[in-house]
Design brief:
alpha+beta; 39% helix; three-stranded antiparallel beta sheet
Length: 64
């Protein structure tokens, strides 16, 4: 298992989500602990260690 750390801003954004959207994003974050490179994992141009995954209308930004 890997450890998923949320930055202060990410935590604030997560706290603003409600209902099923919160549940979907939270599930995706928990899944990152088991598989830090899931299907749909894409590199972010301009960031050497930046990646993203998409969950519905939201993007989860990842730094390794």
């Amino acid at each position: 298992m890997y450890k998923v750390d949320l930055g202060r801003r990410a935590q604030k954004d997560l706290d603003k989500l409600q209902g099923h959207i919160f549940d979907r994003v939270e599930t995706a974050l928990k899944a990152l602990a088991a598989n830090p490179r899931p299907f749909g994992y894409d590199r972010i141009e301009g960031l050497e260690d930046g990646f993203r995954i998409r969950e519905g209308d939201y993007r989860i930004l990842i730094r390794h």
